[in-house]
Amino acid sequence: MLASPQQQPVVSRASTGAPVDASAGGPPALRFSHVSKTYRAGQVKALDDVSFDIRPGEFFGLLGPNGAGKTSLISILAGLSRASGGQVSVLGHDVVDDYANARKKLGIVPQELVFDPFFSVRETLRIQSGYFGVRNNDDWIDELLLNLGLADKAHANMRQLSGGMKRRVLVAQALVHRPPVIVLDEPTAGVDVELRQTLWQFIARLNREGHTVLLTTHYLEEAEALCHRIAMLKQGRVVALDRTSELLAGTASTMLQFKTDAALPLSLVENARVTGRVVQLTAHDALEVERILATLREAAVPIEDLEIGRANLEDVFIEIMQGSRA
Ligand SMILES: Nc1ncnc2c1ncn2[C@@H]1O[C@H](COP(=O)(O)OP(=O)(O)OP(=O)(O)O)[C@@H](O)[C@H]1O
């Protein structure tokens, strides 16, 4: 961890390279306990009895379609909104009863870009340090600027920055007080490949050094690559929670993809994912692949650009959201 004198690493690495949970027996990094949230006098149920823990040092993904409740959960965690029921805590500090201590442990990168346009990047980060009572923070601010590709923008005014640059400042802002728990709410929405790589390299390094990370994203390939465990929300409820590798192991293992202009035989339509001319079908084994290809041949469906590969997290996500998998 990028340790400051006040903050002890929550996870360290033994000489074998194996991660060691230095806080074993301590509180979870994040605890969501029977959390519910309703809007409009109970008419909209955004969260319904959500419970799970995130361990210190984990890289945890929270996935779900639009409206599943991810932002509602993060708003409660950040103290921006109150749960209708249940509790949330950060390293043992309740986000309502012990808000100041809970907030100090959190670095939150929000979805929305909100800044005071009159300050420079460095001033923005100094002001944010001041909110957390951190003085003489320029060395760490310089390190953040360097790692997020902002070194040459330190004196630029916030209003002069592009959207992608502003998002980098948002990340730096969340990290000024070296929080042990980092929450990223769709940090790569609409940002270019270069920033994604810079951002993920840096966040992965912080995670290796012991910081806990909670990520929400619609980019499932990012979640698959980065997250140790994943929870999936659907209509405010947790419908899946497991190690990423277990989620992948439980899915139909093979993906067939091809292009066609013709209609699919009825027996295949139900399980097909169709995007324009591109059709994707999952199969559990080689026999099922053969059966699908035979069905297409018998129905005289002309196919182009056939590819057969391994199913990925997107396939798992769709299976779970469609309710075709427990
Ligand atoms: N302030 C609000 N007033 C009324 N309903 C709301 C409010 N905020 C969220 N909702 C509703 O609560 C549900 C969950 O919304 P939420 O924004 O938490 O989902 P989300 O998973 O973050 O979605 P997205 O992926 O689109 O950001 C949705 O039905 C949404 O319409």
From TrEMBL:
Quote the Gene3D superfamilies the UniProt record gives: P-loop containing nucleotide triphosphate hydrolases
Keywords of this entry:
ATP-binding, Cell membrane, Membrane, Nucleotide-binding, Transport
Is-annotated flag, keyword Nucleotide-binding?
yes
Query: Where is each ABC transporter domain found?
Result: 30-260
Annotated region (Disordered), positions in chain: 1-25
Gene Ontology MF terms: ATP binding; ATP hydrolysis activity
Q: Which PROSITE patterns has this protein been placed in?
A: ABC_TRANSPORTER_1, ABC_TRANSPORTER_2
Compositionally biased tracts (Polar residues): 1-15
Extract the InterPro entries matched here: AAA+_ATPase (IPR003593), ABC_transporter-like_ATP-bd (IPR003439), ABC_transporter-like_CS (IPR017871), ABC_transporter_ATP-binding (IPR050763), P-loop_NTPase (IPR027417)
Family matches, as SMART domains: AAA
Does the UniProt entry include the keyword Iron?
A: no
For this entry, the protein name equals ABC transporter ATP-binding protein
Q: What is the lineage of its organism?
A: Bacteria, Pseudomonadati, Pseudomonadota, Betaproteobacteria, Burkholderiales
